[in-house]
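Sample intake sheet
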Amino acid sequence: MADEWTPPTEVSSSDFRAPRQGFGVLLARMSRLAARIAALEGSSPLRQAGVRGRPGMLSSLDFDGDGGHVNLGTTGWMLGAADGGPSFFILNGRLVIEELDAQAAALAAQDVVIAGQVSDLASRIAVTASAPTFNTGSLPNDATFHVYGPDIPITVSVPTGRIIVTVGCGQATATSGAGAVTAEATFSISGGISAYGDVYARNYAGAPTVTSGASLMVQRAFVLTPGTYTITGKMRAWASGTSTGSANFSNPYITVQVTG
C-alpha cells in the first residue's frame, strides 16, 4: 500500500518518514479482515441454505440447501422451547407440530377403536367338551326320555349376544329288543333359554329291526342378552314295548361358538 503521508520538502526523508504502525496500517488490516469475513459469509453452509437467525428463531428460505426454495416451494420458521415458549414449526403457513399433534390424537383414538375390535375378536371363541363312550343298560319300558351318562357343560362369556351350539356323538346305537328304542343327543342353555329336548338329534330302532346305529349331530344358533351362560350337552334314551332295550353312545360331545 502506498504511503499516505509525504514529509515536507524542507524536511529530510531520512529525518522524518511515514510511521510503520498507525491508522493507515490498522485500516489496511481491517480492510483485509472485512474481505475475509465477507468471503466466509458467502461460503457459509447455513447462509447458502438460506438460513437466517433472529432472536429465539431460525428461519430458512431453502431447507434442502440447493441454493433456492423452488423445489420445496416453501418458507418457514422454527422456534425452540429454550425461550420458555412452546416449540413450533411453520411451513407454508401451516403449523406442522400442531398438525402432527392432531394426527397423533386421531391415531390414539383409532387405537382405542382397534383395541375394542381386538377385544371383540378375542371374545369370539369356539369351545368343545366331550365325554367317554357309555351304554345305558336296560331302559325302562315307559315311553319316556331319561338322561344318561355324564353332563357335558361349557360356561362361556357371550359379550356379542350370539352363539352357535352343536351337540352330537360319533355313533348312537339303539337296541330295541321286541319293542322300540330312541337314542337322543340334546342340550340345555342356562337361564331357561333352551331345555333338553327342545333341540335334538335322534336315532330310532323298532321291531323287527333289532339294532340301528347312526352318527348324531344337531346345530342351532341363538341370539341372547350379552352375559355368561352354561350350555350343557346331554344324551337321552327312550324305550317302549320292551324291557331289554338299550342305547350305546360313542364319544358324545358339545361345541359352543361365540360369534359376532
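Comment: The chain has two domains: 24-92, 126-259. Residues 24-92 form one domain.
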